[in-house]
Amino acid sequence: MSLFDRAELAPADPILGLTEAFNADTRPEKVNLGVGVYLGEDGKLPLMAAVRSAEERVTQQHKPKAYLGIDGMPAYRDAVRALIFGADSAALADGRIATVQTLGGTGALKVGADLLHQLSPEATVLISDPSWENHRALFTRAGFTVDAYRYYDAEAKGIDVDGMLEDLRAAAEGTVVVLHACCHNPTGYDLTGEQWDAVIDVLRERGLVPFLDMAYQGFGFGIAEDGAVVTKFIDSGLNFLLSTSYSKSFSLYGERIGSLSVVLGSAEEAKKVLSQLKIVVRTNYSNPPTEGAALVTTVLTDPELRQSWEDELGSMRERIKTLRQGLVDALAARGISDMGFIAEQLGMFSYSGLTKDQMIALRTEHGVYGLDSGRMCVAALNTGNLDYVADAIASVRG
Ligand code: PLP
């Protein structure tokens, strides 16, 4: 008997497995609203103009492919820290932030989870109910017990803030709390500034450990607006972790580029934490790749490319809003008037309220792929498939 006979056949990943099923579907009218990817009007993944220019510049340099440092490219670190925390951040100037370049947002979450588990193996991790599917799996795999705090109010189509605060108040000291910084995945409902203040108060009172996950900066209200929550956390004086991803906002999914920052009370603490983060990275994949970091750095530090990126991200954000409204109107035209909330949700997703059976019917009968939870990626709609999707939804709603 081989050792590998012990390996059981695992179920397909709830999101990426759906893409596999989509790819195998031969119906030409099929639509993939499963994975969180922004597609253009032509139904294709865009290569952003600023990224294209940066790529040309980087290629022309014909640089040899040296190893990066364990924590990544220094210029990248500086550029993303200025983006996230502001170039004139006092915490940055004080040296109180430890940052490493990571393999996308997922890599940032895992490096952060491994660090936290080493420091506090008995802690529980709380994620929102519901949350991005991989949060639970990732923190469980890192060795934590994962539980959830109330978040989505299905009746009211919004956030159960009182329930959330109550669950956080009931958490044991040292509990890690994973919070979506903006464009909550999957619900599309974000806390208001005042609600964030209330959450921060409870985090402080209860001695909880915040882990902010920011995968969609720029897709809600704007780069600065979506990032404002980070300033709130800095101003709160709490220590916290922050993962960022540039998969969506630079359309650099396959480059695996993101960052993990830990904001601490002193430069001395930051130095120690960075040294531990480097051990986590070194013992996993040694050091990160260069290409994505070079592209993001070039775009962020060149004023012209930066402006072009901000403008294009702005038009992506606005286009998603138009698609949301387009879907709401198309549904209304088919007699469905109770899905107007889709236009109010933020980011790439709509938590449609459709049942698991309806989502399965969408898939099997119409080739429209969304998650069983009812999550649909509205950023994958276009004027060519919107009516088809509306017809399909109207058909499964009966
Ligand atoms: N966090 C959230 C909330 C996400 O939705 C995603 C991606 O879908 C990630 C993290 C991971 O981002 P990346 O693809 O850069 O690993």
UniProtKB/TrEMBL annotation:
Assigned keywords, A-Z: Aminotransferase, Pyridoxal phosphate, Transferase
Domain of life (superkingdom): Bacteria
PROSITE patterns assigned: AA_TRANSFER_CLASS_1 (PS00105)
Class of the enzyme per the UniProt entry, highest EC level: transferase
GO molecular function: identical protein binding; L-tyrosine-2-oxoglutarate transaminase activity; pyridoxal phosphate binding
Enzyme Commission designation: 2.6.1.-
Entry GO terms, CC: cytosol
Cofactor: pyridoxal 5'-phosphate
Pfam families: Aminotran_1_2 (PF00155)
BP terms from Gene Ontology: L-phenylalanine biosynthetic process from chorismate via phenylpyruvate
Residue ranges occupied by any Aminotransferase class I/classII large domain in the UniProt entry: 29-393
Subunit structure and binding partners: Homodimer.
Stored NCBIfam families: PRK09257.1
Stored PANTHER family: AROMATIC-AMINO-ACID AMINOTRANSFERASE (PTHR11879:SF37), ASPARTATE AMINOTRANSFERASE (PTHR11879)
Family from the record: Belongs to the class-I pyridoxal-phosphate-dependent aminotransferase family.
Protein's UniProt name: Aminotransferase
